[in-house]
Amino acid sequence: MTYCVGLKLDRGLVFMSDTRTNAGVDNISVFRKMFLWERAGERSVTLMTAGNLATTQAVVSLLNERAKPADERGAPSILEAQSMFQVAKLVGETLREVIFEQSGRAGPVADSPFSATLILGGQVQGGEPRLFMIYPEGNFVEASADTPFFQIGETKYGKPILVRAYDPGMSFEDAVKLLMLSFDSTIKANLSVSLPLDLHLYDADSLRTGRVHRIERDDPFYEMISSGWGEALRAAFDKLPAYRLE
Predict the structure, then answer these.
(1) CA separation for the pair 121, 202 (Å, rounded)
(2) Kindly report the CA angle at 84 between 145 and 165, in degrees rounded to 5?
(3) CA distance 158 to 189
(4) Mean pLDDT in consecutive groups of 10 residues from the start of the chain, 246 residues
(5) What pairs with residue 17 in β-bridges?
(6) CA distances from 173 to 176, 178, 221 (A)
(7) Nearest to 9, CA basis, from 118, 87, 123
(8) Does the pTM of the predicted model rise above 0.85?
(9) 59 close to 116: Cβ distance less than 8 angstroms
(10) Integer Cα distance of 234 and 230 in angstroms
(11) Residue whose C-alpha is closest to residue 61's, from 41, 51, 71, 47
C-alpha cells in the first residue's frame, strides 16, 4: 500500500508521499512514488502514484518517453500541453492505456490487479496552480475550495487531522507540519506505509520545481513532531471531563 497527499494553498502546492511497497510481509521494498517534470519559467508538474507498482512505473516511463523532443517520441507530451487540464487529460489517457495493455481488457474493473490512482499538480504559464486526482478509468477531478486536498492509498488514518487543521492561508512550514502529523498517524496504524517520505513545495507562479526534500527515518524534526503529537493528545485527553456513570 502507500500514502500520498497533495494540498492546494494560497501560496502554492504541497506534495508528500511515502516510499514503501510490499507484496506480503516478507517482500517489502522502497520505491519512489513522486515524480517531477519542469521547463523552468514555463511549467512545473508533479505526479504521485498509488496502486500496482508495475502499472505506475509503466505510466511514468511512458510520460518520460513522451517528454522527449517531438522527433523522438511521436505522441503528445505533458511538457507541451497548453494547460494543466490538458496535462491531466494526457496523464489519464496514459494510465488507461497502460491498464488496458496489462489487463488485456477494454478497461479496468473494480478489483483489477493493475489498478492505480494518481495525484497530479502543477502550473503551466498563463494558468493558475491546479491539483487533480486521476482514477484508473482515466477520468479525473480537480481540487476546489470545497475539496482543497487529495489523498491516495491508505487514506483513512491521516484524514482527520487534515480536515480539522487545514487552512488555505497556512504557511509552507505549517503545511509540512500538518502533513507530517497525517503521515505519522497513518504509519502508526498501518505497516504498509512507512518512511522515508518525499516532499515537494511548489511556489505559485514560480513555474519551476520548488524545494524537494526526503525525510529519512532518523529525521530529528519528524521524531519531535511524532513524539510531541502523542504527548499533546494524551494531555488533551486528560483535560476532558470524565463520563459520569449513573
Answers:
(1) 9
(2) 30
(3) 9
(4) 95 97 72 97 98 95 90 82 97 95 65 83 98 97 97 97 98 98 96 95 98 96 96 96 93
(5) 4, 198
(6) 5, 9, 12
(7) 123
(8) yes
(9) yes
(10) 6
(11) 47
